[in-house]
């Protein structure tokens, strides 16, 4: 935990491991009561924007929910998105684990001002927030009922419509048809207007309410006032959550964490973009500042890639993981991302041939712009920016044996949990039926044999994988799950 300016969201965390209610009221002044118009005015004057990645104006979202509530006669629901399924990001889970009352303060402010029917806090199953948030709810008085909902710790679980589906008891993946939560997100059959923001946004609202617009804007930039939370990932050790004013130079953040830009810096996490080391040092950490460099702030996750690891191999690892983390409900996720991941893996391994780079770009081009959610576009931004920043490394893998560096697994990924499809070459006869039964999994080479010996299987691909395994004429396919010996699925 480290502030590079005034400690607002991180106040007291240098003295307390966790701020229970007694510690919270010692650190933070009393929370003012604000009416509907006062709260909306406050959010507009400080230009509070979502800190989950999209940066959508909070006041506009809140006004939409309030308007929908007035039109329908149904009281709104306040939803705190603390699921945070992205491996390089830890700021929201830190807040829910160590400063849960600050997050709840923001939700309570809105619930009281807007006459909410319920507060719902979404957390990742198994995360510290699963125990910390219910304990905090038990300590305080609330203007309406509140509950915690646990969702699977997957990348797409943090998407707003996926969380709303989880709140409604449905499978936790992005909705196939885009809709506005403000118009009616939660509530099952009786759809209720919903105001959803991530954990840091609610905490920022509580800070702004205590400080007021002027003092809140005393740090940051004119266009983007206040502070933000950053997750700075460090190889070989845990991440640091840093609080810094908007506009702070990325180089200052790296220096404070004793890191160097290395071969490139990823800002925004796995839906973010890579920055060249020369640009990274002076890059201002703000939405507008990073956009001018072709970057994005996203959820504020930062990874500096050391020169000892192979950049292309690192990016290929994450691209394969992202392809498996999709909901698999649209063409870009079912075909575009797996195709891109496979082509990128071949490029990194030096087996893709002279067209490998074009194969990656073509697959990503087909994945962009047509997804049911932002997952294909975000993944494409991550990979395409890497191809530009690591262009010299790409050339080495295209024109020769590669860069000669090992892949040190610097980019954080969770332990493999899904199934993998494996080919037993002692049995395979090149029949090719597996490529017909599971075209999204098994790619056949020029001679009819599977191009890969081991293929990760996403949850939405398991039906096709089972068919391919059980109908293989040569009994050459096996399914392996972590911790289990390989076997046929029957």
From TrEMBL:
Named cofactor requirement(s): FMN; [4Fe-4S] cluster
Protein's organism: Kitasatospora cathayae
Protein name per the record: Ferredoxin
Taxonomic lineage of the native organism: Bacteria, Bacillati, Actinomycetota, Actinomycetes, Kitasatosporales
Family listed: Belongs to the complex I 51 kDa subunit family.
Domain NADH-ubiquinone oxidoreductase 51kDa subunit iron-sulphur binding: 312-357
Keywords: 4Fe-4S, Flavoprotein, FMN, Iron, Iron-sulfur, Metal-binding
Entry keyword Nucleotide-binding: no
Keyword Iron found: yes
Cited Pfam families: Complex1_51K, Fer4_15, NADH_4Fe-4S
